[in-house]
Specification:
By secondary structure, the protein is mainly β. It has 2 domains: 37 residues, no CATH class; 134 residues, Sandwich (Jelly Rolls), CATH 2.60.120. It contains no helices and 12 strands.
């Protein structure tokens, strides 16, 4: 006998199933007594992505690009299996070149996982930080983590524990830092940026 629920079962819930004596086998024999058992579904936690517009499918907002050199930031490139990706082009090197998203809500002393897909046309690297959006730019647990980019799409994942604050904050800045790795003519492609609690 196969039991197929009419609807999805709820996480972390105990269910009772009873098969009555009305049930019959293929030879048309009834059960002598009712048969009852219980089971509990697993706890399923789905973490919400804290990054807005993670795949650049809605343009470039709320992502921000800054350089004290020269460059552009658009969503005019294809992603890895998606229509769009963040696309940075460097036309003059700078000492402060960054793509970032501000106003990220974080809980203290909590494990998070950052994952994203990326590459650069020259294989030049990028470093990742998560810090306070404004001065004094306090490190929030991820500081200058260097990612060795290749020249084709790859997925990267970093796990870290938040630090540097004691209560929930809403001023986190996730920052992709391109200098000192960038050079004239470099193109960086970033897609599917996901930040979740572990």
């Amino acid at each position: 006998m196969t039991f197929t629920p009419d609807a999805d079962l709820t996480s972390n819930t105990t269910y009772t199933i009873t098969i009555s004596t009305d049930a019959k086998d293929l030879a048309d024999n009834s059960m002598q007594t009712d048969h009852t058992w219980e089971f509990t579904t697993e706890v399923i936690t789905i973490s919400e992505n804290l990054i807005q517009n993670p795949g650049f499918e809605s343009g470039t907002t709320p992502w921000r690009f800054y350089t004290n050199g020269m460059g552009t930031f658009m969503d005019d490139a294809s992603g890895d299996g998606s229509p769009h990706a963040g696309h940075i082009t460097i036309s003059q090197e700078g000492s402060n070149v960054q793509l970032y998203q501000p106003d990220i809500v974080l809980e203290p002393n909590t494990q998070y996982r950052l994952s994203f897909k990326a590459y650069s046309n020259t294989g030049h690297d990028v470093s990742i930080s998560l810090h306070k959006h404004g001065s004094p730019y306090t490190n929030y647990g991820l500081s200058d983590y260097v990612v060795d980019l290749g020249t084709s799409w790859s997925e990267y994942s970093i796990q870290f524990t938040t630090s540097g604050f004691s209560g929930t904050v809403n001023d986190g800045r996730l920052r992709f830092w391109l200098s000192p790795y960038d050079a004239v003519g470099d193109e960086y492609f970033i897609d599917n940026v996901i930040l979740v609690k572990v």
